[in-house]
Write a structure and sequence with these properties.
363 residues, alpha/beta, Rossmann fold, 9-stranded mixed β-sheet, 13 helices, 29% helix
């Protein structure tokens, strides 16, 4: 549901304002998992990057109501430098208990809006991503100086940020076990776009961008025409013409969070064909645990956080030859290792621990 406020109207008081580079209705990942859970106890305004420009014809503030306690806003401004003044104009009070940042690109809002506590939940090293602005490094320095607490989405990020801030906590990606294990589902119907695929499926879901090793995908598919390589997810910062084409490579587009377990159920093997480059140096893929929840054998390139946390139960590869061989030799007893790992993690537990730290800082 969308609500529209004109210039004379004010937003309600919020307990937390979240600033995020990812759209709420894009691929469902860390921000949605954590913020939706925190919204059970906090009234939250989730601010996305602008998609349109403010004008006299659009003199309003649009709020999408996800739940009673969670509202999403796409600000009508030309650039993020205008966000602080824009918010100040519409907020009932220019002060809020918690400011939560997923990207340092929003840091200029601190010139206009006051927060009792500033949280930086660093889920990715955005400065290393394709197309990152030259300003972002300086903006992150400013945010780290202002932050009361820093959370990181993996151990590699924790090590990097702990050198720059005194109060850093590592909260690696977690999992909604019930959702991805298809618990409570007696029969899972095969999605229509998988019906045409008769070969064993090696599947990936997530954003398809510069972090994917497309050459590895192409070379492995050429070596193994007896497998179907299925890629699920939206393209980002690459074009369709960049994608390798073959009779046994399928691109199925973006699927909703609700649909993903249905597709994952029909993967014979789950893959994480990440390139080893600057943009993947600090990643800790959320999908690792989701694949485990569905009890799928996993093949992955040697992402640092995957290697050190999951080397005992994930097939780690360097090249297409390794990938081809790994298809036939899943790690023995991987299910037992998965069970032990999954027993020690959940998004509920992560958000609860984060909330405790915030309350301690506020106190």
């Amino acid at each position: 549901m969308n609500n529209y406020l004109n210039d004379s109207q004010k937003l309600p008081a919020y307990d937390m304002i979240v600033f995020c580079h990812l759209r709420w209705d894009f691929v469902y990942q860390r921000p949605q998992h954590i913020i939706s859970r925190l919204a059970k106890n906090y009234k939250i305004l989730f601010i996305e990057e602008p998609v349109d420009v403010y004008s006299s014809e659009k003199s309003y503030f649009k709020i999408q109501e996800i739940t009673t306690n969670l509202h999403v806003c796409q600000p009508l401004i030309q650039n993020l430098g205008q966000l602080g003044a824009y918010l100040k104009k519409h907020l009932s009070k220019p002060k809020c208990p918690v400011g939560w940042f997923y990207s340092a690109a929003f840091v200029s809002v601190l010139d206009e809006i006051s927060f009792d506590t500033v949280v930086y939940d660093c889920m990715d090293e955005l400065t290393l991503f394709k197309g990152a602005s030259h300003e972002l490094l300086k903006q992150e320095e400013t945010l780290l100086s202002a932050a009361d607490v820093v959370y990181t989405g993996g151990k590699s990020l924790f090590e990097a940020k702990a050198e720059k801030h005194h109060n850093v906590f590592c909260f690696p990606s977690s999992v909604d076990l019930d959702h991805f294990s298809n618990m409570g589902s007696e029969v899972t119907q095969k999605p229509s776009d998988l019906e045409r695929i008769s070969l064993p499926i090696v599947g990936y879901y997530g954003v398809i961008d510069e972090r994917i090793d497309l050459n590895l995908l192409q070379e492995t598919a050429a070596r193994r025409p007896d497998y179907a390589f299925v890629m699920i997810g939206p393209l980002c910062k690459i074009e369709e013409r960049d994608l390798p084409l073959a009779d046994n490579i399928y691109y199925l587009g973006m699927k909703s969070y609700e649909e993903l377990p249905q597709y994952l159920h029909f993967f014979d093997i789950a893959m994480m064909p990440f390139a080893l480059n600057e943009s993947t140096r600090f990643i800790s893929p959320t999908k690792t645990l989701e694949y485990m929840a569905a009890n799928k054998p996993i093949i992955s390139t040697k992402i640092k956080d995957v290697v050190r946390d999951y080397r005992s139960c994930v097939n780690l590869i360097d090249n297409a030859d390794d990938f081809s061989k790994a298809l036939e030799k899943p790690i023995e007893n991987f299910s037992a290792s998965y069970k032990e790992i999954l027993e020690n993690t959940s998004w509920d537990r992560t958000s609860e621990k984060m909330s405790v730290i915030i309350n301690e800082v506020l106190a």
